[in-house]
Specification:
4 helices; 4-stranded mixed beta sheet; alpha+beta; 3-stranded antiparallel beta sheet; globular; Dehydrogenase; about 140 residues; Trna Endonuclease, Chain: A, domain 1
């Protein structure tokens, strides 16, 4: 009798809260979703499978005409255009904050779900401010 393999459920590359917030174009809801769930980022180079701390190298878009750099974030891996690198990672809020702080002088804009269904754009400073908001009890 063959036994069923038991394993972890597949990782869901989706942030439903962020998808809902983008659908309504509600900046407060987007900020809340960014603080409380992961964001999907395209990877230039995936991380090492045996090292959970190695997420990989986040892919950014550099406009060949202006040199400006954009960070592309997604609410769902299914929203990532096929023309971008195929690998994705879940970026938790603290990692997104650190990434933006490190690259704040280089990144000029942040796009959410660039190709839809409900795209939104923000400055890195605005995204950092959204991530830093703390609710007082």
């Amino acid at each position: 009798m063959a036994g069923k393999k038991r394993g972890k459920p597949p990782v869901e590359f989706r942030n439903a809260q962020l998808a809902d917030a983008l659908q309504t174009q509600d900046m407060a809801a987007v900020a809340f979703a960014l603080r409380h769930g992961p964001t999907i980022v395209p990877l230039m180079k995936p991380g090492q499978r045996d090292n959970p701390l190695d997420v990989g190298e986040v892919w950014t878009f550099r406009d060949p005409n202006t040199g400006q750099v954009a960070l592309l974030l997604f609410s769902d891996a299914a929203n990532k255009p096929a023309t971008l690198p195929p690998a994705v990672a879940l970026m938790p809020p603290a990692s997104l904050m650190t990434f933006l702080e490190v690259h704040r002088d280089e990144i000029t804009t942040v796009f959410f779900d660039l190709a839809g269904p409900h795209p939104m754009q923000a400055s890195p400073v605005d995204v950092l401010a959204a991530l830093e908001v703390r609710v007082e009890d």
